[in-house]
Amino acid sequence: MDFTGLSNAEQAHINKLVEKRQFQGFLTMYGKLVEKCFNTCCNDFTSKSLSSKEEQCVNNCAEKFMKHSERVSARFAEMNAEIMSGQKNMSG
Amino acid sequence: MSSLFGGGGSSSSGGLNPERVEMALTEMDTVTDLFNRMVSSCQNKCIARYAEADLSKGEAVCIDRCVSKYHEVYGKVGDKLKVRGEQKS
């Protein structure tokens, strides 16, 4: 993504909107993660509270997801960097 | 990625061009959406169990390959859509 072609006023405006969207994105991700971990881990409804097995599973689920997300993020950034430098070489 | 939407014209005036802002935000949303779908798809493809908190070696390798393939598919589908669009006009 290349925001360098924009004026200062536009950059400032965009930064505010980007921040808001990132926050919304975070909240959406949170909701989806809760759903995923719940569906994966909680299958025993003989009690109101989480069993220790379920609690461990939820911990693992959340941590694993975060590590997974970080890894995808790293690879994604690498791919994008390759693509960007490829594009610059073509247009320059 | 910015080639999808074309350039926006000159920049150094201090004004605020809503169209350019809109384009930049659309591009950001597109990339964010791509990323989120990639995370979700690769999680479904690569991570089967939550017995441990760490990624296993197999899962890590799977994720790397998944990201690479996803990107390739993204490119190929984009090319097909571009060709389709050109044919129609």
Automatic annotation (TrEMBL), chain A:
Pfam families: zf-Tim10_DDP. GO terms for biological process: protein transport. SUPFAM superfamilies: Tim10-like (SSF144122). It is a peripheral membrane protein. Residues 17-78 form the Tim10-like domain. Keywords: Chaperone, Disulfide bond, Membrane, Metal-binding, Mitochondrion, Mitochondrion inner membrane, Protein transport, Translocation, Transport, Zinc. It comes from the Eukaryota. It is found in: Mitochondrion inner membrane. GO terms for molecular function: metal ion binding. GO terms for cellular component: mitochondrial inner membrane. The keyword Chaperone applies. The twin CX3C motif contains 4 conserved Cys residues that form 2 disulfide bonds in the mitochondrial intermembrane space. Belongs to the small Tim family. Heterohexamer. Mitochondrial intermembrane chaperone that participates in the import and insertion of some multi-pass transmembrane proteins into the mitochondrial inner membrane. Also required for the transfer of beta-barrel precursors from the TOM complex to the sorting and assembly machinery (SAM complex) of the outer membrane. Acts as a chaperone-like protein that protects the hydrophobic precursors from aggregation and guide them through the mitochondrial intermembrane space. This is Mitochondrial import inner membrane translocase subunit. The lineage of its organism: Eukaryota, Fungi, Dikarya, Basidiomycota, Agaricomycotina.
UniProtKB/TrEMBL annotation, chain B:
It comes from the Eukaryota. Coiled coil: none annotated. It is a peripheral membrane protein. Pfam families: zf-Tim10_DDP. Its main location: mitochondrion. One of its GO terms (cellular component) is mitochondrial inner membrane. Residues 22-81 form the Tim10-like domain. InterPro entries: Tim10-like, Tim10-like_dom_sf. Gene3D superfamilies: Mitochondrial import inner membrane translocase subunit tim13 like domains. It is found in: Mitochondrion inner membrane. Mitochondrial intermembrane chaperone that participates in the import and insertion of some multi-pass transmembrane proteins into the mitochondrial inner membrane. Also required for the transfer of beta-barrel precursors from the TOM complex to the sorting and assembly machinery (SAM complex) of the outer membrane. Acts as a chaperone-like protein that protects the hydrophobic precursors from aggregation and guide them through the mitochondrial intermembrane space. The twin CX3C motif contains 4 conserved Cys residues that form 2 disulfide bonds in the mitochondrial intermembrane space. This is Mitochondrial import inner membrane translocase subunit. It comes from Favolaschia claudopus.
